[in-house]
Amino acid sequence: MSKLLICILSIMLLGQSFKISFGDFLHIEDLLDHYEYHQVKFGDDVYSFLNKHYGELKQQHNIEHQEEREDHEKLPFEHQHSCVHTAIAYFNSVELIPEPKSVPVDQTTASFDYRDFYSFAVASSIFQPPKNA
To answer: Which of 39, 69, 87, 120 has its C-alpha lying 20 to 30 A from 110's C-alpha?
Structure first.
């Protein structure tokens, strides 16, 4: 399950880095309809259509066709918004619940005041209290 979630979040991150949102895929039909319109009215092929709407001829095309502005706003991959959504996923597979433990007899005569009355299930040997040798 976590691998599936990681794959989904990775795909979302990749898409957002190219400024592609999932809402753009809902407007693919509008893109195809507008392409058919350009093909019938202007005789544009795929390359010239993409160049007029996403390439070098975009500004010139927008100036020439002000009356079709409403159709151009529906096209996908045109939105230059910068919304920031943060998704934080935290998976904790180890529970750190203190467990009471008994004090060994040899620690009762130690010369230091610290006594470890709790132990954690996952404890590193680096972060242990000093031992009486």
So the answer is: 120
Give backbone dihedrals phi and psi of 100, rounded to 5 degrees, phi first.
Answer: -65, 140
Greatest alpha-carbon pair distance for the chain in Å reads: 97
Task: Name the pTM for this structure.
Answer: 0.48
Residue-by-residue DSSP string for the chain: -HHHHHHHHHHHHHHHHTT--GGGGGGHHHHHHHHHHHHHHT---HHHHHHHHHSTTHHHHHHHTGGGHHHHHTSTT----------------S----EE-PPPGGGTT-SSS----EE-SS--STT------
Question: What token pair was written down for 110?
Answer: 């130690």
Dump pLDDT digits (tens) for 30-76: 889 988 988 998 898 998 888 888 888 888 888 887 776 677 777 88
Q: How many CA atoms lie within 13 A of 39 on its CB side?
A: 10
Rounded Cα gap, residues 95 and 97, in angstroms: 6
Per domain, the residue ranges of the chain are 21-78
What percent of the chain is predicted at pLDDT more than 70?
63
Amino acid at 6: I
